[in-house]
Specification:
Radius of gyration: 31 Å
Organism: Ficus microcarpa (Chinese banyan)
Strand order of the largest sheet: 1-2-3
Keywords: Chloroplast, Iron, Iron-sulfur, Metal-binding, Plastid
Number of helices: 2
InterPro entries: NADH_UbQ_OxRdtase-like_20kDa, NADH_UQ_OxRdtase_20Kd_su
Protein name: NADH dehydrogenase subunit K
Domain NADH:ubiquinone oxidoreductase-like 20kDa subunit: 4-46
Structural class: alpha+beta
Order of helices and strands: HEEEH
Length: 118
């Protein structure tokens, strides 16, 4: 729009401002009506933007330290014969307490808590 100082200005209610001033815009699609080539180009740009955001979110989530847990008991006991620690992760079903606990893994040697988490 060309403003020569007449009765229209960009702050007037009678002029149409860019929609990006009101809502967030990802891709601009020029033309009224837009040409098919412009539509294809806009869709391609939008797909690239979405894939880039998905990749960045995946990288960001991998960099965070996350821990997931279920109902479990952790038992550390010292072996009297070898002097090493016997560590096991025991799972108890949250629905019934009659089910015996199952040992998922056991270590016969000394293991740091960092190695158990990772």
């Amino acid at each position: 729009m060309y403003n020569n100082g007449g009765m229209f200005s960009t702050d007037s209610y009678s002029t149409v401002r860019g929609v990006d001033k009101l809502i967030p815009v990802d891709v601009y699609l020029p033309g009224c009506p837009p040409k098919p080539e412009a539509v294809i180009d806009a869709i391609t740009k939008l797909r690239k933007k979405i894939s880039r955001e998905i990749y960045e979110d995946r990288i960001r989530s991998q960099q965070e330290n996350r821990c997931f847990t279920t109902s479990h008991k952790f038992r550390v006991g010292r072996s009297t014969h070898t002097g090493n620690y016997n560590q096991g992760l025991l799972y108890q079903s949250p629905s019934t307490s009659e089910i015996p606990t199952e040992t998922f893994f056991k270590y016969k040697n000394s293991v740091s808590s960092h190695e158990l988490v990772n």
